[in-house]
Amino acid sequence: MDEHISVDVTEGVQTIRIDRPEKSNALTAEMYEAAADALALADHDTAVRAVLFAGMPGVFTAGHDVDELRQYLDSSTFGESPVRFMKTLATVDKPVVAAVDGLAVGIGTTMLFHCDFVVASEWSIFSSPFADLGMPPEAGSSLLAPGIMGHHFAFELLVMGEQFDAQRALAVGLINRVVVPEDLDSVALGYARALSAKPPQAVRLARRLLRGDRRDVVNRIGLEAGSFPELMHSPAAHDALLAFLDRNRDQFS
């Protein structure tokens, strides 16, 4: 398990916490692998009935680690580890709750489309400025976001790159509850425990029916990642991502 991903199982809830505050919880390949491993373990562990994702005070995650994004740019290939995490999250059979405080950038926002219940602090900020960075949408968000938010809000988030505060995210259906920061962990954990206390077979069946066939989502994740090399052959997209990496060389340190 990566040192920046902590995993704990208590009272039927597996908590996966992103813990790299010195880099605003930016995710490395090792962190993605650790989170994917934890999800896979939760799916096969009968003691786990719900999963809770959390970050640190003030930041859920700032997205991909910039050094690894530079490697993707240099190789014109999107990383296998984030794709594995996205596909694992898309297909996990246990209910997933998220507790979001502060920054939720890129994958910090798009992963929420796979969660079943999201609690956010009142000062949370959600953004996925993929087009601004010359990158494609990710995590199946190009398929899931329009279904959850409607086309216009999804376009605003994923293409216009607009930031959504907690109240706006609540209004468009991205999150379920807004709470004061000091209550975030306890409220989110309470919902996860409430889920874990329900008959697990009934929860899984209802969730499967609500979510539908996930093959289209998994395929879309692959299509999004597969379009990254094509975009990097576009000078404008390549230069946009390069400029972002240069501006954020010491990402939120």
Q: How much is the radius of gyration in Å?
A: 17 Å
CATH class category name? Alpha Beta
Mean pLDDT figure: 95
Low-confidence stretches at least 5 residues in length (pLDDT < 50)?
none
User: Given the structure, what is the number of helices?
Assistant: 11
**Could you state the order of secondary-structure elements as H and E?**
EEHEEHHEEHEEHHEHEHHHH
Which class best fits the helix and strand makeup?
Answer: alpha/beta
Distance between the termini: 23 Å
Describe, in plain words, how this protein is organized in 3D.
- By secondary structure, the protein is α/β, with parallel strands linked by helices.
- It has a single domain (5-181, 200-247), classed as 2-enoyl-CoA Hydratase, Chain A, domain 1, CATH 3.90.226.10.
- It is 48% helix and 16% strand.
- The chain is built from eleven helices and ten strands.
- It has helices at 29-44, 66-75, 80-91, 107-110, 141-149, 151-158, 166-171, 184-196, 200-211, 215-232, 235-247, and strands spanning 5-10, 13-18, 50-54, 59-61, 96-100, 103-105, 117-121, 125-127, 164-165, 177-179.
- The strands form two sheets. A six-stranded mixed sheet has the order 1-2-3-5-7-10, with helices on both faces. A four-stranded mixed sheet has the order 4-6-8-9.
- Helix 2 (66-75) runs antiparallel to helix 11 (235-247).
- The longest helix is centred in the last third of the chain and has 18 residues, at 215-232.
- It is globular and about 55 Å long.
